[in-house]
Amino acid sequence: MQLHVSAGPRAEAVQVGVGPVGPRELLSVARHGAPVTLTDEALAAIDRARAVVDELAAAPTPAYGISTGFGALATRHIPTPMRAQLQRSLVRSHAAGSGPEVEREVTRGLMLLRLSTLATGHTGVRRETAQLLAGLLTHGITPVVREHGSLGCSGDLAPLAHCALALMGEGEVRDAAGTLMPAAEALAAVGLEPVELAAKEGLALINGTDGMLAMLVLAISDLRMLLRTADIAAAMSVEGQLGTDRVFAPELQAIRPHPGQAASAANLTSILADSGVVASHRGPDCNRVQDAYSLRCSPQVHGAARDTVEHAAQVAARELASAVDNPVVLAEEGRVESNGNFHGAPVGYVLDFLAIVAADVASISERRTDRFLDKNRSHGLTPFLADDPGVDSGHMIAQYTQAAIVSELKRLAVPASVDSIPSSAMQEDHVSMGWSAARKLRRSVDGLTRVVAVEVLTAARALDMRAPLTPSPATGAVVRLLRDSGIEGPGPDRHLSPEIEAAVSLVASGAVLAAAESVVGALA
Fold first, then answer.
1. Catalytic residue positions?
2. Any stretches that span the bilayer, and where are they (predicted)?
């Protein structure tokens, strides 16, 4: 899957305290390798919660997660000499993932979020366990986490168990250079010692929504950038297809006051400002009454997508401020209580919502692209933007590529969160499938990136073919970016795949957005 923001220079250290980790900090650690430290306040909170666990562990009354089995086996009381084995067995048995490795940024993100929950003082781990998790992040040691294994309830058990396994010095990890090696070897190489998990620690390390939440935060960041880039692509298509910018006027948006719609329309107006192409057909001789929906309704679709992303961001903010564990330690009251906060439904739902957003924005982008290629709808452009139609096929198959991706995105838009399968002998009889929703969203975001890139590539070719009419300064900057990046303008057919991949990289890196913003300033 495409990494949408490339890793840059090593970022400044992120401090994890008793308050929530924010999206900016998560991106810094997950994508840019920032080291991590625990604040003194967090360490004090961890110590207070641990004292409660130690007291309950010494008591004769069984306490779930401390002196009992887990899930459907919670009725068995575990004697004190076997409790270290209980924690080891929990982690080993739950590290049952299968399939390809997930991306480094996802694993680092879920590790950071688990550390953030430990730092709240509601889980009962020892400070040395939390500090070792911070040490793995700081030294760039990334446990191998597999694609399949989480039902999103009780949290992302299998992915988090693979990370907990590394704290025990077991399993496989990748070091900072990406080399696969045994965890014990990687820890020793940077001077870290594995821990022997004490009462409740194994459970505290694996019982959270951290994987699905990390992927949600990463996707929100990507989609905010991609939706602004989609506005640029739409503006290029409106311009290249001799459409009008009058429909984006603020007074028209104001009578349907969705904030995302207004922002998208404002972007389109700004990007199209001073366009020689648009000005060329603005006079009284123009007999076009109104543009096709894919052009005219771009702000309505892109705007609804924006508003959905911001709803997802609100849910993510609440989840980032949560301490997800079961049982949870209430240190002030000196007790441990079971709860259902590990259920991933709130996160799973919005992950599914965003897959719908990605599919529909890609769908309208593909429709705009297709209009360039049909001589009956492209207003004077050659069929398929070909140099010598019949001899050359131009961008005919680029649209096929878009169509194939859009078709897949529609399948990925089918919600995962409604597909509960009971587990743990019917003790866990309703699960969220939030991890699955997150995994398919990552594929959706990657697909949207590729579809928008093909639209930008095709629209740029069309704008060149409108010469001597000149594009707007903003769209002209995007065309120059493509040409300066080695993507040639109109001409005889050539190997198209490398040009598509180059355009994908320019969209994914934010370069297309930056080119337009260098002219018009920050887009909404």
1. 64
2. none
Distance CA 449, CA 173 (A): 30
- CB of 523 within 8 A of CB of 510? no
Using one digit for the tens of pLDDT, what is the confidence trace for 358-367? 999 999 999 9
Nearest CA to 316 out of 96, 77, 113 is that of 113
Rg, C-alpha atoms of the chain: 26
d(CA 192, CA 185): 10
Q: Does residue 325 contact residue 42 with C-beta atoms inside 8 Å?
A: no
Report helix, strand or coil for 127.
helix
Mean pLDDT of 319-346: 91
Domains and CATH numbers, the chain: 14-208 (1.10.275.10), 216-520 (1.20.200.10)
Q: Which burial class, exposed, middle or buried, applies to 190 when counting CB atoms under 10 A from its CB (0-12, 13-18, 19+)?
A: middle
Distances (CA, A) of 266 to 16, 65, 273, 428, 523: 38, 54, 11, 48, 8
Cα 393 versus chain centre, distance: 36
Query: What is the rounded distance in angstroms from the CA atom of residue 142 to the CA atom of residue 6?
Result: 17
Joined together, the tokens standing for residue 504 give 């994908």
- The pLDDT tens digits of the residues spanning 456-467 come to 999 999 999 999
pLDDT value at position 281?
87
The partner residues of 174 in beta bridges, in order of sequence, read 142, 180
Burial class of residue 80 in the structure, from the number of CB atoms within 10 Å of its CB (0-12 exposed, 13-18 middle, 19+ buried): exposed
pLDDT of residue 286: 62
User: Taking a C-beta distance cutoff of 8 angstroms, is the pair 299, 265 a contact?
Assistant: yes
Element (H, E) at 74: none
Buried b (16+ CB within 10 A) or exposed e, 279-301: eeeeeeeeeeeebeebbbbbbbb
pLDDT band at 183; cut points 50, 70, 90? very high
Contact (Cβ atoms closer than 8 angstroms) between residue 31 and residue 21: no
